[in-house]
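Field reference: sequence -> structure
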Amino acid sequence: MSNYHALDTTTVVDYLRGSPATKDLFDSQAGLKASEVGDGNLNLVFVVQNERDPEQAVIVKQAVPFLRVAGDSWPLTRERMRFESQALLLYNRLTPGLAPEVYLYDEDMSLVAMEYLGHHEVMRKPLVSRQRFPKFTEDISTFLATILFKTSDLYLTGLEKKTLQATYINPHLCKIQEDFVYTNPYMESPDNNWNPEIEPEVKAVRANSPLKLAIGELKESYMTHTQALIHSDLHTGSIMVNQTDTRVIDPEFAFFGPMGYDVGALLSNLVLNYASHFAHTPDASQRAEYQRYLLSLIRDVWTLFARKFDDLWAQHNQGELVPNAYWDYHGGQAAFAEYRRAYILKLLQDTAGHGACEALRRMMGIVTVWDISSIADLKQRAAAERCVIRISSRWIMERKSFTSIDDLIGVIEEETPGK
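Structure field:
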């Protein structure tokens, strides 16, 4: 029988004190205090701290049996905490230092206790305030290249990959993404919400047959293309940063899907931030300077990711997709290099398509992003949203013609107001 019960700021302290895995994380005589710090979309999230030494702290994250953003009328499996915990453990094994350390996973309580990142901040808001993070592109490209390559058929045997894949069958949270990213925003749905100032643009997207055909292709890819273990919610709200360190958090949506989704979700959220500065940064020269920085992040994330992914593949081609023996003939290494080039080009095109769906749905679906929603003036907000809609629509429709990251950036620049 399950002992599950939802914790609060009092009972979470008692829980940590009573668990063998966590009771020694704090001084035995320390007074502990807890506060809830989650955004309220999916889970309960607490920070528990030593009152005398707040640096001594633990994060506790617990799933509740419904989608919090929609209310208890929307049931949701608590198993998502298993997916998050096992993904974090895998991240720490493959990319140590790029995710928080896990202290405890309690399956009955649908709960994980992990490292407190008190010297980091969630990346989204600092980007709105025009901060810069010199280690970010190096760190996140390493994370993406390593996790995506080392959970794929390029690195794992068929048995290894399918055995791992079987532990990440995540249908309930996949259903949320399938509906909220690829379906509901582009049709009449009671879940949708949008700025009334962009009503004509929303209607135009929902009646754009070529665009919707392309989105349908991308949804099928998301549902069927099991390339690697993807985070499936990797945006600037699920990355914590400071000047020297980067950590990936919140992988409860993790499953085996298309690699381009993770890269695309990240790049498209940088696009969302880029557009938000039409309102957040009124000074034109200051805005242009920071937007150039954001474009450099987009370019560098992709360029470093593609190089590192290719290097890993060239050095560790131990999977069963195209084993080394397959290329063991005169001219085989040149053919292998061409195969890798074409594969990574397809990843770029998938990145554009899936990323654009992630950005487009934020303009007219159930959940927006703080970069945009924090713009109080609806007309100013609409200017940013129209820019995102134009960029995203073009990324989707033109993705198969893209041959470099500069093609994606060129679309952003062409659709920037005043350019």
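Note: The two ends are 63 Å apart (CA to CA).
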